[in-house]
Description:
This protein has 13 helices and 14 strands. By secondary structure, it is an alpha/beta fold.
Amino acid sequence: MRIVVLAGGIGGARFLRGLRAAAPEADITVIGNTGDDIHLFGLKVCPDLDTVMYTLGGGINEEQGWGRADETFHIKEELAAYGVEPTWFGLGDRDFATHVIRTQMLGAGYPLSAVTEALCARWKPGVRLLPMTDDRVETHVAIQAEEGTRKVVHFQEYWVKLRAAMAAEAVVPVGADQSKPAPGVLEAISTADVILFPPSNPVVSIGAILAVPGIREAIAEAGVPVVGLSPIVGGAPVRGMADKVLAAVGVEATAAAVAAHYGSGLLDGWLVHTSDADAVADVEAAGIRCRAVPLLMADLDATAQMAREALTLAEEARA
Ligand code: FO1
């Protein structure tokens, strides 16, 4: 079975570990979000691609959900000693090697998709990891500055430095509208047997991927079941601060509202957590099959069970 998964960072990567366990025979292609990418110290950092690669490749810092295990931060400390900014983004020594090689290969003319393939040759994630595009896309966030004027900051500054402490007035994947799907992306979608939206951030992760012209249309026209899993449980994100960016796009932080945001034009099925069973009727009324199942990725078995539920709902929607 060919499965295509649109994935962001931590939530998407953890879900993929469960999916691999639930469907070991499946051929899984991940379309990874690159809107979180940031250029630091002359290096290109791809947080969501690296989180998927490290998580599935066994190198992730498990508690954090990002960055490498067994990390040290000598380079970061030395840069800070020189007074170089930013100091608020925790790049570890092991992680720096990934960004050095990526930047070196990009500088030699390799597209991001080829770089990602080369990095995955080491990590062997057990899935095909494709960036959503080879073109530069970086999500920026408009916030209310002190003196009541608006300021635009890079998504990572909003997320990591500012901890999303203030409302996001607008979230823009800069460059998306001029970008093209990376090689293999549209082909993977058109040959998929099922397409999954894991519990990634609906705005800055799944939303950024859908903002690449051609991807949303390809999914809508794929003619195969598209099933998503709610990242919102009981009116709040299970992890992260998705509610902050959902508000920026006028979407209420509820399981039903996120399903409606994706729309029945995209989604055939939607899983909500058992505590949100009262949302099932609303989602079904929107023309999307819905089921309430446990959606907390407490461990591999729980996550694998979620993946099985998603694949089962997809088969019901296919019929
Ligand atoms: N997240 C943080 O909250 N603090 C950090 O210092 C931080 C550093 C970092 C370095 C590399 C990387 O790949 C990810 C990193 N993240 C950090 C997570 C990152 O902001 C998020 O994973 C995504 O961008 C959102 O999904």
